Amino acid sequence: DAGVTQSPTHLIKTRGQQVTLRCSPKSGHDTVSWYQQALGQGPQFIFQYYEEEERQRGNFPDRFSGHQFPNYSSELNVNALLLGDSALYLCASSLSLARGNEQFFGPGTRLTVL
Amino acid sequence: AQSVTQLGSHVSVSEGALVLLRCNYSSSVPPYLFWYVQYPNQGLQLLLKYTTGATLVKGINGFEAEFKKSETSFHLTKPSAHMSDAAEYFCAVSVPINSGGSNYKLTFGKGTLLTVNP
Questions:
Q1: How many Cβ atoms are within 10 Å of A15's Cβ, its own excluded?
Q2: Are B11 and B113 in contact (CB under 8 A)?
Q3: Which of residues 52-111 of B touch A (CB under 8 A)?
Q4: I need a labelling partner for A84 at 20 to 30 A (CA). Which of A58, B61, B68, B87 fits?
Q5: What share of chain B is helix, strand, coil (3-state, %, to 5)?
Q6: Parallel, antiparallel, or unpaired: how do β-strands A109-113 and A10-13 relate?
Q7: Distance between CA atoms of A88 and A65, rounded to whole angstroms?
Q8: Bridge partners of residue B14, in order along the sequence
Q9: ∠ Cα B108 B113 B115 (to 5°)
């Protein structure tokens, strides 16, 4: 079992550009959540996908959007990049939306916006 | 609103000494609490979790945590630190993100960096 995988590992973009990050959940998991972790901070919830629908989102602007595919993999898209979007983006998968179910995290994608 | 406060952004201990990482939470519903560890350039790994039942929870790598409702705390301990324990530790609380209470997200503290001195 490969666990949660994310691609790419690192990414450098300039302000105003668009970026797409990808996540493959752990085998058997159907729920994907995305988090943004700024330097020196804890992860902040962006949104969660289940059954190919965005179930809820955190306090992030519409520039952040996502998608979940029938195989449960997911993408995070960020448009009109700002310097403040520089962060580690973490994908986490879990089995269903049950509260106590463990979320398994991927290694993250390090996004740098210049 | 639910939140997590980790006291001490940096804790330094000697190898073999007691590790104590502090976490206090606020929650409008009975909390589900988690401790995660993050090694450099890696994602988060679950150490342990409290949902219901026994308030003393044992996790991986010799860590344990005790849920104390009266103190709204969930402190992480390990009797004897090892060099390999050096990492960043995050406390998190699972909170409902819809009115029906069927969807949940994790709210994290800002983290505590643990360094272990030889």
A1: 11
A2: yes
A3: 90, 92, 94, 96-98, 102-111
A4: B87
A5: 5, 55, 40
A6: parallel
A7: 16
A8: B117
A9: 155
- Establish, for the pair of chains A and B, how many residue pairs have beta carbons separated by less than 8 Å: 68
Residue that has been written with the tokens 């995305």 in this structure = A34
Question: Closest Cα of chain A to B90: distance in Å?
Answer: 7
Amino acid at A3: G
Return the pLDDT at B41: 79
The CA-atom distances, in angstroms, between A31 and each of A28, A64, B39, B84, B92 are 10, 18, 24, 31, 19
* pLDDT one-digit tens code per residue, A16-68: 999 999 999 999 999 999 999 999 899 999 999 999 999 888 899 999 999 99
Structure tokens at B20: 């104590």
Whose structure tokens read 């679950």?
B46
**Nearest alpha carbon to residue B69 among B8, B111, B27, B112:** B27
Alpha helices in chain A (DSSP H): none
**Of A22, A76, A25, nearest in space to A47 by CA:** A76
Cα separation of B65 and B73, whole Å?
Answer: 9
pLDDT in tens for each of the 118 residues of chain B?
Answer: 678 999 999 999 999 999 999 999 998 778 899 999 999 878 899 999 999 888 999 999 999 999 999 999 999 999 999 999 999 999 999 877 766 666 778 899 999 999 999 9
